[in-house]
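the four lines:
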Amino acid sequence: MKDIESAAQTYIITADCPSRTGTVDVVTRFLFEQQCYINEIHSFVDTTENRFFIRVEFRLDSDAIFNQDDFTEQFEQRASQFEMKWQLAPRPYKSKVVIMVSKHDHCLNDLLYRYRTGDLNIEIPAIISNHPDLEELAKWHGIPYYHLPITKETKPEQEAEVYKIIEESKSDLVVLARYMQVLSSDMSKKLSGRAINIHHSLLPGFKGAKPYYQAYDRGIKLVGATAHYVSDDLDEGPIITQSVDTVDHSYYPEDLAAKGRHIECLTLSRAVRYHIENRIFLHGNKTVVFGK
Amino acid sequence: MKDIESAAQTYIITADCPSRTGTVDVVTRFLFEQQCYINEIHSFVDTTENRFFIRVEFRLDSDAIFNQDDFTEQFEQRASQFEMKWQLAPRPYKSKVVIMVSKHDHCLNDLLYRYRTGDLNIEIPAIISNHPDLEELAKWHGIPYYHLPITKETKPEQEAEVYKIIEESKSDLVVLARYMQVLSSDMSKKLSGRAINIHHSLLPGFKGAKPYYQAYDRGIKLVGATAHYVSDDLDEGPIITQSVDTVDHSYYPEDLAAKGRHIECLTLSRAVRYHIENRIFLHGNKTVVFGK
Amino acid sequence: MKDIESAAQTYIITADCPSRTGTVDVVTRFLFEQQCYINEIHSFVDTTENRFFIRVEFRLDSDAIFNQDDFTEQFEQRASQFEMKWQLAPRPYKSKVVIMVSKHDHCLNDLLYRYRTGDLNIEIPAIISNHPDLEELAKWHGIPYYHLPITKETKPEQEAEVYKIIEESKSDLVVLARYMQVLSSDMSKKLSGRAINIHHSLLPGFKGAKPYYQAYDRGIKLVGATAHYVSDDLDEGPIITQSVDTVDHSYYPEDLAAKGRHIECLTLSRAVRYHIENRIFLHGNKTVVFGK
Amino acid sequence: MKDIESAAQTYIITADCPSRTGTVDVVTRFLFEQQCYINEIHSFVDTTENRFFIRVEFRLDSDAIFNQDDFTEQFEQRASQFEMKWQLAPRPYKSKVVIMVSKHDHCLNDLLYRYRTGDLNIEIPAIISNHPDLEELAKWHGIPYYHLPITKETKPEQEAEVYKIIEESKSDLVVLARYMQVLSSDMSKKLSGRAINIHHSLLPGFKGAKPYYQAYDRGIKLVGATAHYVSDDLDEGPIITQSVDTVDHSYYPEDLAAKGRHIECLTLSRAVRYHIENRIFLHGNKTVVFGK
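prediction for all of em together
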């Protein structure tokens, strides 16, 4: 977090490709040739799938002029020889995040707090809900609130409207902050890799509806939450991060919910941070996360 | 742990019954009349099932003479009016625990350490295994080791032998310390409420075989263990306690297993302690645990 | 949390006294005579100091009429024979909590969220700050905000004003939610046992100013927070609860602060909950906490 | 942990130097030129101290012949231009670890378990103690046990003997596994950076003698342990890793000790693992740890 000013000259490059000799060098040599200073570098090789992942945070020498197009064109020539999928992002970069909610406001409240204090470096072009309840909270933060009710019949139209808001605001990420609705298969696919959901159980335990009630019935001794990318297959998307806290027999479902709230907030906001800081790679139905 | 000497005069009474006014008083008044001093008292009412649970640790005035038979006869007269199931146990009471293992020795090693240092106040009349591998470890601790191989065909005979050892040693508890064999329905029933298993996942996630492999495939970010009473329904018995630790994408199944070992040890030994200190009540398919 | 309606008829009795036979019975027998139903009972004996502590949550039979004055008069006759200090409180009881802040708003924001959603069953008659910054947040929640600047010279006057607000609002508790000022010895004494402070370190490590900077300099690998009662001796008051999270070498003081924020919130709100639910006993420079 | 066979061809290079452009490239380019495949790379820049740290795990192409002397000579030419301190180590490399103990055996027992199962890839040329108590345990593991009593007067001689054992066995690391003796200033200096101590508190809280008693007196709600390098300044050496567990008022010093045992074991073994896997850099009075 040091040197906020010079951070304007900081970038993150992420890449993944089949694993072979030279995959690190192709990145680090190029950055050296461009006189970039590497702040931090992480790599990982999945030896089962034979795939390589790398994340490099670098900054430019003080008065260098950085031409992103030139960088892209030149690096692509080398990266393509490694069949590399890669991405370059300035940091700090203010990601645009659309938040979807239902009536529960704890995750929204937490995200808004982190938004207004700058703890999460995001813009929020829209808060979308199928209920009107949380409009006041959105308004106090000066964020447009879209009340888009949903029924079985109107789901396609509602989702089309939602998608339009996401697209028109050029949003980078959609966060389902206890939205309580299952996205259609079509919508899930369109948002693949850029929609994060918080599920209030430690997946794969207690998939589906009312996980705190399921957990109560099973007599669990730890209550947890899972942040994951939305996929076509309910509660089966790639897991980003998980947290737990201890409980005992005296926790009724309402008590689990109360205790679980801060865990949900913490888990979801961590996942959002990882995403906007380009720390996550999708890797089949898993994630590679260079966390902090 | 204070006053180890006077602890010889310490007892634990546990009871549960339908919930109604007077359920605490019937216990506490009787203890007062017997001039017992209450060290610690915990109670819980399950308002859904309308059932009351209580655990009282008490000691006798210094030179009192305690007649357990008289106590039992007299208290039963009152307890029966509340349809109370109850139990009286001296503390410290050296429980007899039979340990069953396969080839993995980490849980056994941990239990034996706690046994030989007195951390767990137990006797171990037998270690039973379907493999010969851990005999040396048993021997060094001076504990009889029974190598009872098992095949599909010989399972009934093997279990009969196991049961004989448990019964003849008058054991209070059977601990499946990574035994890796599913007990038959009949055996599960015979050991109901006195056999604890450690499962190396956070149940209900990853039931059945090879949970670390299942967890790896699902891309989990927390690895856990669950200690539970054995029941007829595999990995569905009442949960006693659970623990977790964080992992990331770089953990292959072998790494999950390595990281999980201490979690398994910790979780299993805690469950054993709760059991032998009469801290656990079976309550349908759940447990009420007055833990410490 | 069950039976919210009947909860109107729920009470908590807490008591402590020198340890001797009959200390539980004197409470439980009286409650039985009054036809009270005990929901939950916890006791503890400090065998070093020879002192007994008990907390009982009880409810009245459905249509009983409860006369608190009669209860008090009658129970006091018995309690006094045990030199018992005791307290009776209805539950839910909406505690009045004055919050004091400086410029950091994360703990305030968290407490206000829990206040407005009913997660903490409190009224907040006043938010007091030596800075004007957080007025907007207070206002949005409809809570009076007192901006009372403080200098070395004006400290006595400022504290007198603060005390007046606390007294006139008949507040039960004062919460220093990152107030960043040391209360005078006189003020500390006047608020003894009813003022909770959050210190952003794991006491007794890093007492005094700028604990995150101290922690950074020492190279710690866990960052923590401590909620404690304010005492005359800075950061030496009785500890109520503590929490931690893991960090590494890459955390500068600002990063520790960022990571520590949710820990501070969680720790402080837990301490407030314990206090208002009468779960805490002051016991010399320690606390006995019957937590949940 | 994959590919144990090919792991014979795996190496770790660690380096640190003043921070400037090219510090990553000088390592990664050289490795590329040597046709080394990078499994994992971590770097960190301390922007306050302007110092760069890197750890790279690499393996050789299947049938390459690796000449460590050539590698060293050639890389040194480049590294010296960056004033780089660096180290090359084969992996797996069986570190030689001398363990020093007193009478408490829990940490020793844990380390021996990890040693005999291969969980820690170490040799133990000697266990040294100022008491005879743990000889039996050492013997069962086939490890020479040196009983070297110590008094104020004989300390220099005793330490000379200890040092001789360390040197003659060419040990890489000394582990004070609850040795309970303070090393002399001279001895601390001679073992600087290669002696790890476990202190049973969360430093800097409760330095010095009897931390569990100190913690009890202070009424803490978390019990912890700290593994650190031994330094001349008691309990002030660079911290490697720390862990905690929750406790409450009912924990007397003996109970804290009992609960703390597994935390000490876990914390110490983790520190040892980090050290022998070349994951730790000494950095003034702190450490940089590329943990896993």
